[in-house]
Amino acid sequence: MVVQLTRLxxxxxxxxxxxxxxxxxxxxxxSREVARTLAxxxxxxxxxxxxxxxxxxxxxxxxxxASVACRADDGRDALWRSIFARPADASPDRxxxxxxxxxxxxxxLFRDPRLSGATTRSCASCHQPELGFTDGLPKGAGLDGxxxxxxxxxxxxxxxGTSFYWDGRMPTLEAQARVPILAPNELGGDFATVVARxxxxxxxxxxxxxxxxxxPDVSEANILAALAAYERTLVSPRxxxxxxxxxxxxxxxxxERQGFAIFVGKGGCVSCHGGWRFTDDxxxxxxxxSSDPGRGGVDPTISGLPAFKTPTLRELARTxxxxxxxSLSTLDDVVSHYAGKVRFxxxxxxxxxxxxxxxxxxxxxxxxxxxxxxSGESIGPESAPSSATR
Length: 390
What we know:
Strands 1-2 form a two-stranded antiparallel ribbon. Helix content is 41%, strand content 1%. By secondary structure, it is mainly alpha-helical. The chain has helices at 2-8, 19-38, 45-68, 73-84, 101-110, 123-126, 173-182, 191-199, 202-211, 220-231, 240-245, 254-264, 331-341, 360-371; strands spanning 283-284, 308-309. The protein has 14 helices and two strands; from the N terminus they run ααααααααααααββαα.
């Protein structure tokens, strides 16, 4: 259906549309709607099929309506601007970041080494604000000095995430926050001890009472709820790309515009990195050399498929190195991977452009565009973490 749609577009005056990128983007969107429908509550087959048809038809209708406007460069820009526009609730304004008592308490807990068994590290030890809430290492550092299994992902824009960790094994931020606290080689804590520490602190007890008036105890559930509330306030700042999305044609220079054209065109990047967060929240095998089973080690329906969650591209300048294993040090390395170093195998994501070739100028332009997704602004809490947390 999507292929037929993209063949129809030129007939209605959309010759300038990036048909390859739109095909991939729409296939990805339709696939997500199919999965959402089939993963829902059990319904009669006819009802499920009807819901699926309605959703797919709605997507096609949206694409057609948007495509009608794409009769020239201005129309094409309007389409991409609509795809990458921030929603109203994604303001990066930090004025009220910790106004919510739960988020304020969570911000304190995030930087408090008492969450760890030895009181030597905190959440902020591995999720450092100045590094886009990552740690700058290829793989996280364990308490015993060994490397953890994977690269530390950013927490920016996690509020809109649909699953967490590179393999998506946790469904909520509350569930995710519990894992590193208990992991022996991460924080190495236990909740009986952690709760006792905070319960012995009169100021923290008051903080919990204010944040949770209906259940004011210091408890595991309230600790996790406060941490998640804080993490949901971590929104990436606006960048020059957002200014362009808002209509400022001069926000990007010619090289960056060329890079964007590659991103949504021959590079096919948008097929996985669409939307204002530049992620589809899905899992893909992108052809890296790796023995990590990824999503295939979590979901028995895709056992053996080395797929990993699509990361956001926001604040990329802060979050190197890249990929689930931190194996690519720079954005140039990332572009080189997709343009000539992909390992081809049966499980390779269909979204990956086969045989992609980019010359030196195109590679530089794509990297330049990716640079417009970082702000250079402070994105961390006003107070720095204790020295004991790193």
